[in-house]
Amino acid sequence: MFRAILLEQVDSAFRASLQQLEDTALDGQEGDVLVRVEYSTLNYKDGLAIANRSPVVRKWPMVAGIDFAGLVESSGHPQWKAGDRVVSNGWGAGEVHWGGLAERAKVPGDWLVRLPEAISTRQAAAIGTAGYTAMLCVMMLERHGLAPGGEVLVTGAAGGVGSVAVALLAHLGHRVVASTGRPQEADYLQALGAAELIERSALATAGRALQKERWNGVVDVVGSTTLANACAQTRYRGVVAACGLAGAMDFPASVAPFILRGVKLIGVDSVMCPSDDRRTAWERLARELDPALLERMAAEISLAEALEWAPRLLDGAVRGRLVVDVAR
């Protein structure tokens, strides 16, 4: 038996609950590696699925959780053997394949990344898809010309992606400006490395197609008008990495920043990201993310508590990262 957060459609009614499942319940899941999950995490997408606020789940019933970190129990994949420490992010887990908010997970071995020695399974969950996405954003900014020294804007800075992005960019020598709707988190964001805070409302109202140039780079998790304004304020040949839609999915913008200033808007996807980029991201996280700052971002909850924390996460009541100890 193993415990899992199970999402069901019962007589057309949605139900999310903590269940005891038979080990044989995993037999129907695609995969050649069985993992004993030690820690998972609660991401924005997990919150949407558990609170049933968006059609994240596309196959029923579903075990929630797009992330997990743990130890291989058994493997039919040549790359993995029992005892290997692994992490998995995305690949449709929690959407079309049973996910990681459970004590066991069965997945294809190609979905797994070997954890660097410097990162524990708990730290891997604290980083999770949010932190791994933040590193992918940093990698994409660098790939398209961002160099240390100028100002970089991070929107949604007190959330999971934003917190890690602030810490990484500050460590790499950028002057990080954090946009947030939670001014009470000023001390927290400054401790992560933010040099300045701006109120999110400053970016939330429609502005001119071209505005005063300020940002060498941007990490945006909000979308909509916030992203449009960020692009309009980006300096000549600057780069914007867009990875979220916490505000909305629309993009009410002009082509002016792109054709008059050569601004580059780059989409960052963490779900189907190629394995080579995943491994690079985790290797860099092991080197460049201060464990003390990561601990400052993280709070730990039990598997059962993930059910009650999901709507709070969507309502903006969570700072940083929520680590789920699936054994609790």
How would you describe the overall organization of this protein?
- By secondary structure, the protein is α/β, with parallel strands linked by helices.
- It has two domains: 2-115 and 293-325, Medium-chain alcohol dehydrogenases, catalytic domain (Quinone Oxidoreductase, Chain A, domain 1, Alpha-Beta Complex), CATH 3.90.180.10; 128-267, Rossmann fold, CATH 3.40.50.720.
- 30% of the residues lie in helices and 28% in strands.
- The protein is built from ten helices and 16 strands.
- The strands form three sheets. Strands 3, 5, 6, 7, 8, 15 and 16 form a seven-stranded mixed beta sheet that branches.
- Helix 2 crosses helix 8 (275-288).
- It starts with a strand and ends with a strand.
CATH superfamily descriptor of the largest domain? Medium-chain alcohol dehydrogenases, catalytic domain
- Form type: globular
Q: What's the architecture of the largest domain, going by CATH?
A: Alpha-Beta Complex
Strand content: 25-35%
Counting DSSP H or I runs of 4 or more residues, the number of helices is 10
What is the helical fraction, as a range of percent?
25-40%
